[in-house]
């Protein structure tokens, strides 16, 4: 059994081809890079790259449409203009080649491929990407969101702060390198509210200090506070849920300093830390393809996109 999955929730248009046992045959992507995100331009970008991305994935996997048993697309959450492209391409393939269509929640896909590739069982999950920051666990037949950001996602914080420093998108990888170049900590807000987090006050305070503070010290302090906040609520979720493993998901979890902080906390609590490879931490088509196997096929008429879909609705 082979699934072809299409990811298009935000900047990335990705096509993955995966076997039911989780073997990834191809995972190809094109990423829209611009200083500001204009939905119409994002739509144009995804439309432009869609045909070549699908073609390249099929070539890499060494298969044709005739070999595909399921076509899956990310249904949400995401930017409507981006989601519609992936959904349309998936519907077209489904109708033209008579292949069953499945709709996949983007967050669920990060979790399921991560669990599969790291052999992680019943973890607490930290999902941190541009728009999302959630601490999740499976209980009584569904995923529950234990805590989440009340304003912007952790990745958006990093990108917005990077932009204020004149950096290109995505700023996270550069900031994570400069984290190690600091000499001292600068006082910045630390905003944990119960199991939830807020990052916009931290952003504003850091931006206000750009002119008067050493750049690397400020980067270190912003990242340190934001990451420590996330580690704190995650530790509390582990404690309350009594789960013994932690799975990282989402592009922000590629950050080395963030992984180090999680590793230290997990070591102290004797928790197994499961870190999937970077190419499935970031947005990708392979995770959509794999999760396509776990969902029931739907008729094309019902394959609507859901930009605000939440994991705990599924
Ligand atoms: Fe994502």
The CATH topology annotation of the largest domain reads as Nucleotidyltransferase, domain 5
The unique ligands bound to this protein are: fe (ii) ion
Number of strands: 12
Tertiary shape:
globular
By DSSP (H or I, 4+ residues per run), the number of helices equals 10
Strand order of the largest sheet: 3-2-1-4-5
Strand content: 15-25%
CATH class of the largest domain reads Alpha Beta
Q: What is the CATH homology-level superfamily of the largest domain?
A: ATPase, nucleotide binding domain
CATH second-level architecture of the largest domain: 2-Layer Sandwich
| Class from secondary-structure proportions | alpha/beta
How would a crystallographer describe the biggest sheet? 5 strands, mixed
Helical content stands at: 40-55%
User: Could you tell me how far the N terminus lies from the C terminus, measured between alpha carbons in angstroms?
Assistant: 24 Å
Q: What average pLDDT do the residues reach?
A: 97
Q: What's the SSE pattern?
A: EEEHEHEHEEEHHEEHHEHEHH
User: What is the total domain count?
Assistant: 2
Radius of gyration: 19 Å
Unreliable segments of 5+ consecutive residues: none
How does this model look, in words?
This protein is of the alpha/beta class and 314 residues long. It has two domains: 2-109 and 280-313, ATPase, nucleotide binding domain (Nucleotidyltransferase, domain 5, 2-Layer Sandwich); 121-277, ATPase, nucleotide binding domain (Nucleotidyltransferase, domain 5, 2-Layer Sandwich), CATH 3.30.420.40. It contains ten helices and twelve strands. It has helices at residues 39-61, 80-97, 106-118, 154-164, 172-178, 200-208, 215-241, 256-269, 278-281, 285-292; strands spanning 2-7, 12-19, 24-31, 70-76, 101-105, 124-128, 133-139, 142-148, 192-193, 196-197, 245-249, 272-274. The chain has a five-stranded mixed beta sheet with strand order 3-2-1-4-5. A hairpin with a 2-residue loop joins strand 9 and strand 10. Helix 4 runs parallel beside helix 6 (200-208). It is globular. Fe (ii) ion binds at residues 106, 110, 129, 250, 283.
């Amino acid at each position: 059994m082979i699934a072809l999955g299409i990811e298009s929730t935000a900047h990335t248009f990705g096509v993955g081809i995966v076997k039911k046992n989780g073997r990834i045959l191809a995972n190809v992507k094109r990423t829209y890079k611009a200083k500001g995100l204009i939905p119409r331009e994002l739509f144009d970008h995804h439309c432009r790259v869609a045909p070549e991305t699908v073609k390249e994935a099929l070539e890499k996997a060494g298969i044709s449409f005739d070999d595909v048993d399921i076509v899956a697309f990310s249904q949400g959450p995401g930017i409507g203009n981006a989601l519609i492209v992936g959904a349309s391409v998936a519907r077209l393939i489904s109708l033209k080649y008579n292949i069953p269509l499945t709709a996949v929640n983007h967050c669920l896909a990060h979790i399921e491929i991560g669990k599969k590739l790291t052999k992680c069982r019943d973890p607490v999950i930290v999902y941190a990407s541009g728009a999302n920051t959630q601490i999740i666990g499976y209980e009584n037949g569904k995923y529950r969101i234990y805590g989440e950001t009340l304003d912007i996602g952790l990745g958006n914080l990093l990108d917005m702060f990077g932009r204020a420093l004149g950096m290109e998108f995505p700023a996270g990888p550069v900031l994570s390198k400069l984290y190690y170049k600091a000499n001292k900590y600068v006082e910045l807000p630390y905003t944990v509210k119960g199991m939830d987090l807020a990052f916009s006050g931290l952003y504003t305070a850091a931006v206000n200090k750009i002119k008067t503070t050493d750049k690397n010290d400020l980067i270190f302090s912003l990242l340190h506070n934001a990451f420590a906040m996330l580690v704190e609520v995650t530790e509390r979720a582990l404690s309350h849920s009594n789960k013994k493993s932690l799975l990282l998901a989402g592009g922000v979890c590629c950050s080395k300093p963030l992984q180090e902080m999680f590793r230290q906390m997990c070591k102290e609590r004797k928790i197994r830390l499961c870190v999937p490879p970077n190419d499935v931490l970031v947005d990708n088509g392979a995770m959509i393809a794999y999760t396509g196997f776990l969902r029931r096929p739907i008729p094309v008429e019902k394959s609507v996109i859901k930009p605000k879909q939440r994991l705990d609705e599924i």
